[in-house]
Design goal:
By secondary structure, this protein is mainly beta. The chain has a single domain, classed as Lipocalin (Beta Barrel), CATH 2.40.128. 9% of the residues lie in helices and 61% in strands. It contains two helices and 14 strands. It has helices at residues 38-51, 56-73; strands spanning 6-16, 19-29, 84-98, 115-128, 141-153, 165-180, 187-205, 210-214, 217-242, 244-246, 249-274, 288-315, 318-327, 330-340. The chain has a ten-stranded antiparallel barrel. The chain is elongated. It comes from Leptospira soteropolitanensis. InterPro entries: Lsa36-like (IPR058232). This is Porin.
C-alpha cells in the first residue's frame, strides 16, 4: 500500500577527514514513500557538499585568511612612535586553497566563491608607554590596538559579486600588539593577541526547476538555498621587523609567526519542492518537499609563519603606509593613513 502522506526525519554524522558532518533531512508529502533509503538520500547530497567542496583545507584557508587580515589591520608598523598615533585603513586577504566543484550544481549557489577571502576597514591607536609610565625602558615600547565592527552587503564588499544571491555579513576583529624597539638598532620585536570574528550569510533561490537523481530515478526540484559561515579564532603572534629609512621614505621588512585557537564552521540548507517519480515535470499531483541541512566545523589548533614588507611615506605628522603580509598560500595587503600627535 502506497502512503499518501509520509514524514521522515533522518540524522547522520559522517566522518570528514578528522571532522564530522552533521546532516538532517526532512521529507513531507506522498512522494517520500518512493525514496527507499535514507543512506541514498544523504549520500546524494551530504558527500558532494562537504567531502568534495568544504574540505579541511578550504575551511583552514578561510580561517587563516581571516586571521592574517586581522593581523595586518593592526597597523603597528616598525617605526617607533614617540607620543600617540591614529590610523584608518582598509585590509584585504585572499588564499589560494580552493573549494572544489560546487554542490547543487544546477542551482544558483553554483556561483558562490571558491576561495577564502576577507576584507574590512580598521581603526588603530598607538601609544608610547613612556607617556603613561616613568623610565627610559618604558619609552622603548609602543602599544597598538585596533578594532572596527563592520556590517556589509554585496554592494560594499569589492570581491563578492554573486549573481541572484543575497549577501550580508559582519566582521568584528580586534587586537593589541606590544612592540619593543632596542636603542638605535633599527630592529623591533612584536608580541600580539588578536580576536577574529566573522559571519557571512548567503541566500538564493532557483529561477527554474533543476534535475536531481534519487535512487537512480530522475527528478526535478525547485527551492531556496542558504549558507552560513562563521569564524571565531583567538591568535597570539610574534614578529621581528627592521626599519630602513631614507629621508621621508621607509622600507620595513619582517617575519612573524601566529598560533590560532578557535574554529571555522559552515552550515548549508536547501528547502525544495520535488517532482513525482513518474513525471519529472509534475509538482502538483502529489505535492512533496525535501529539506536538507548540512553542517561541518574545522577546529584551529595550529599556526603558520608569514613574511611582511611595509612601505611608509612620511609627510610631516602624516604618513601613508602600506604593508604586505604573505604566508603559505595566503596573502594580505593593508593601506592606511596615519597621523601622529
Amino acid at each position: 500500500m502506497r502512503f499518501l502522506f509520509s514524514i521522515f526525519i533522518l540524522s547522520l554524522a559522517i566522518p570528514l577527514i578528522g571532522n564530522r558532518i552533521e546532516a538532517q533531512v526532512l521529507c513531507l508529502g506522498g512522494e517520500c514513500s518512493n525514496i527507499p533509503s535514507e543512506y541514498q538520500l544523504l549520500g546524494n547530497f551530504a558527500e558532494p557538499v562537504f567531502d568534495k567542496i568544504y574540505t579541511n583545507g578550504f575551511l583552514r584557508s578561510m580561517g587563516d585568511n581571516a586571521v592574517l587580515q586581522n593581523l595586518n589591520s593592526n597597523q603597528s608598523g616598525g617605526i617607533k612612535v614617540q607620543g600617540y598615533r591614529m590610523g584608518l585603513g582598509y585590509t584585504i586577504s585572499q588564499g589560494q586553497e580552493k573549494a572544489r566543484d560546487f554542490y547543487y550544481e544546477n542551482s544558483e549557489l553554483r556561483t558562490l566563491p571558491k576561495k577564502g577571502a576577507a576584507a574590512s576597514p580598521s581603526l588603530s591607536f598607538t601609544a608610547n608607554l613612556g607617556q603613561w609610565l616613568d623610565g627610559a625602558f618604558a619609552k622603548q615600547w609602543n602599544l597598538t590596538t585596533h578594532f572596527f565592527p563592520y556590517e556589509f552587503r554585496e554592494a560594499n564588499v569589492p570581491f563578492v559579486k554573486i549573481r541572484n544571491t543575497d549577501v550580508r555579513g559582519r566582521v568584528f576583529n580586534y587586537g593589541a600588539v606590544f612592540r619593543y624597539f632596542p636603542l638605535d638598532s633599527g630592529f623591533s620585536f612584536g608580541l600580539g593577541v588578536f580576536q577574529t570574528n566573522q559571519d557571512l550569510y548567503l541566500s538564493s533561490y532557483d529561477r527554474r526547476p533543476t534535475q536531481i537523481r534519487i535512487d537512480g530515478d530522475k527528478r526535478r526540484w525547485i527551492g531556496q538555498n542558504d549558507l552560513f559561515y562563521e569564524s571565531r579564532i583567538v591568535s597570539g603572534s610574534l614578529d621581528l621587523k627592521y626599519n630602513y629609512t631614507i629621508d621621508f621614505f621607509s622600507i620595513i621588512p619582517g617575519i612573524g609567526f601566529v598560533y590560532n585557537h578557535g574554529y571555522t564552521a559552515i552550515e548549508a540548507s536547501r528547502f525544495a519542492a520535488i517532482s513525482t517519480r513518474a513525471n519529472p515535470d509534475d509538482f502538483g499531483s502529489v505535492p512533496s518537499a525535501i529539506g536538507i541541512r548540512l553542517s561541518t566545523r574545522h577546529n584551529h589548533r595550529s599556526g603558520f609563519g608569514y613574511g611582511s614588507l611595509g612601505l611608509q611615506i612620511g609627510l610631516g605628522k602624516y604618513s601613508l603606509v602600506t604593508e604586505l603580509m604573505a604566508g603559505k598560500e595566503i596573502q594580505s595587503i593593508n593601506l592606511s593613513l596615519q597621523v601622529q600627535f
